[in-house]
Predict the structure.
Amino acid sequence: MNILFIIDSLTGGGAEKVTSVLANQISHNENNKVYVLVDERNKDEYYIDSRVTIISVEKIHHKNMILRILQVLRKIFIISVTKKKYRIQTSIAMLPVASFYNTITRSGEKIINSTRIKLSASDYPQHILQIVRYAIKKADINVAVSNSVRRDILQMLSIDSKRIITIYNPCDIEDIKQKCIQEIEIKLNTLFDKWDFTFVTHGRVTLQKGQWHLIRVIRSLVEKGYNVGLVILGEGELSDKIINIIHEFDLENNVILLGRKINPYKYLYKANVYLFGSLYEGFPNALLDAMALGLPIISSDGESGIRELLAPSTDCDYVTTTIEYAEFGIIIPRFTSEISYDIELDSSEKMMETAIINMMTSNDLMDKYKQKSIERARDYNLNKIVNQWMEIIE
């Protein structure tokens, strides 16, 4: 079977990671020919098996409107030619704009578009939302990354519910276990050893991810005399802002922004607890990866997939107002989007601080959530999720 994935790049985010994992796994079947069409390539992209054919298209970068339109038309032409040349039978797009291109270049193949985020909670501009709505309506199958995302689509659009299914992101537990035991830099090892308790978080440094809330909580803990540290893995448009906040709070010895790492698992493995401050998520890949390493989780109740991962027995749209000791992690009320320099913590930050102190002072609580994390990660094992994808691809 000839299968095409369309995505902006193979670097950085959850959709990019899932694309690389699915393409690699599907290509292991000799009856499948897998192609991945991307805008750009670079040295930091996720690993792609040699059996997968990568097709690069020039990234649309011109600011001049006429030149941008010409680039868009050129990209549409290249995708159309690619589908015909390789006799694509199923074409899959993982991100909003890619879904639009996938839909309008239909050439007799099955069209699958994946929605990775709750549209009603996103900060997408209006023209992107219109593109997404069009792509969802025209696709043969839409894959929502969580039940909350699926419900959101059905509430926003008049569409047959049978054309929207939920497939969660996979967790390659064996790959994570192999990579986590690699050595980290000596100077960082020393830093980890200096703290009595190390927290870690991983993801793009953007407004959505809310890392500044975690820094504020760490500052309060340090002021109370706790010898703790926070390692932030990732980069993004708020990186400079986060660095300024660290300096403003005099936390250079307690909060480290490491940037994006090709192998984040070896740093996660050194930590005691994983903190997550996202305001909203489609499905939190980074959280699941941390759970595969047995890290206890303390997370905000961000919109969408977080609750489905940590508290699956509750309604996916329920929002807690107190500290919730859920089945697979501790959930605190949703953070705000305001970046504050106030000394006083807001109510959600105070509850995260309380949850952290409870975790640090209770070995039983730590051990419980370590085991629960490992147990939950197994529910998203690679083979199970790949099989779900193959059921709709074929």
